[in-house]
TrEMBL record:
Cofactor(s) required, per the database record: [4Fe-4S] cluster
Phylogenetic lineage: Bacteria, Bacillati, Bacillota, Bacilli, Bacillales
Name the record gives this protein: B12-binding domain-containing radical SAM protein
Keywords of the record: Iron, Iron-sulfur, Metal-binding, S-adenosyl-L-methionine
Coiled coil: none
Source superkingdom: Bacteria
Amino acid sequence: MNIVVSTLNAKYIHTCLALRYLKAYSEPDFHVEMAEYTIKDPAINIVSDLYMKKPDVLGFSCYIWNIEETIKVIEMIKKISPQTAIVLGGPEVSYDVAHWLDRIPDADFIIVNEGEISFKHFLTEHSGEQRYEKVAGLAWRKDGKPTINPPREKLDLKTVATPYRFEEDLDQLSKRVTYFETSRGCPYSCAFCLSSIEVGVRYFDIQKVKDDLIFLMDNGAKTIKFVDRTFNIKRDYALEMFQFLIENRRPGVVFQFEITADIMRPEVIAFLNEHAPVGLFRFEIGVQSTNDHVNELVQRRQNFEKLTRTVMTVKEGGKIAQHLDLIAGLPEEDYNSFRKTFNDVFAFGVEEVQLGFLKMLRGTGLRLTADRHDYTYMNHSPYEILGNNVLSFNDIIKIKRVEDVLEKYWNDHRMDTTLNYLIYQVFDSPFDFFQEFGDYWESKGWSRIGHQLEDLFARLKEFLTQRGSHNEIIEALMKYDYFSRKKHRPHRSWWEETLLKSDLEHYHRWLKHHPERISDTFKSYSLSEKDLMKHTVLDLVPFDLNYYLTTGEIKKDQVLSLIYYPPKTHEPEHYSISLDQIELEERSLL
């Protein structure tokens, strides 16, 4: 029997852990081939590839981001290969199962919830006596009518074979994100989340976990993302794993975790701040809302004071990047309340703030009680809300404009220095900056076209200019951000030159003869005037830029700013010197 399990990932770099569990649990009794695609791949290309594999059983792992594209593939497969048994599984089809059997008539079976044992049991029956009523956790049609078998007991995770050591995965480990889990389940009952449905937390064997992590690192894995819903729920377990990863890390590897910040113990953070190398760990923290009443309505327990302590202590340690999540559209969170939530979170100054919109997922408590708050939402995935009793569709549109520029400017770190100045020195709050800029962005039609790096700087400058906020300080900060993110000396683009050609020649000569006035490092390069012209950018700045970068304070002074692009490393270096110092030096030589 030829068995293929497949999914459509969001991007090529993502991998589907579910397929690997199904394969690991089914073998060696059944050989299972994995086939992964992306939601961007043309459906006909996916169908063609699957057809050539000649599957007798074809399974699809279904999620909100791929269900619509998966349905198109299923419909075509069934037309050209009607004898192939189509089996669906995954969180998107594990709830409202009768609905899915009705909506997707070409799907023959659905595996509900945890699938390893049920899928293998199904394969046994399908290849034998076909007593499908014996397969717990299976939904199917009997005499044309939907039949949903009783659920299966939870799997003993210590019995699961490793899904991380397949030969076909090894050459891709360095190029893709490896998803990894050490536990299943969540201790919380947030009404908007599917994880709240499963009661209790189960753990895999910790020695097997460690052995698999060593294997993955030794075979080139660079980004390992733990999918545990609350990695730090058990202090001793989290501490042991953090210590293991620190002691056994390989060069270039990064580990990502979803943590609950308000239960993070101070001694764990202290250990990480002392022992974790910079960049080894990355934390994703779901804040969602800072409105206590809103959190109560969705049965979310959150101590914002303790959350703040964790986030700020981690930030002060300077070792771990943090990504904080927000959800717009939670019950009774109106536009003004969400503005406060956004500003509360932005005050942390973390590396990324992810702004998402509430999705009424099948099976969640919030979807079941949607009428209480007059929710309207999309009928099909991703089931995103269109409004409720306190948040209109117009409000949602406005917040989406915030999300658009937030992603392009803050989360992509195109101009951190400039944005921090604008947010805290020019606009009333971070939210107001992103909202006003987002409104302008939309009014110009920029959301419907592509953008190069130069475009992003030019458009911010245009927005600030029409607002009457652009000035020489902002211009200098924008140029510093732009020059610092290039690998080579850029050609003139969106900025105004502050130096004439004769001025440039003058300063190039001075720098050639007095490099020690810049720094010993700069002197060691022994640059000629030709080198300076080819590999540096000079700019006149009306304040001490280095002082501002260190203190955040503007100290007026005419400064020559210099960005040097070393031809070997291509890592830009910034220097500056006061014009008064240059003039003083020149007078002394007269």
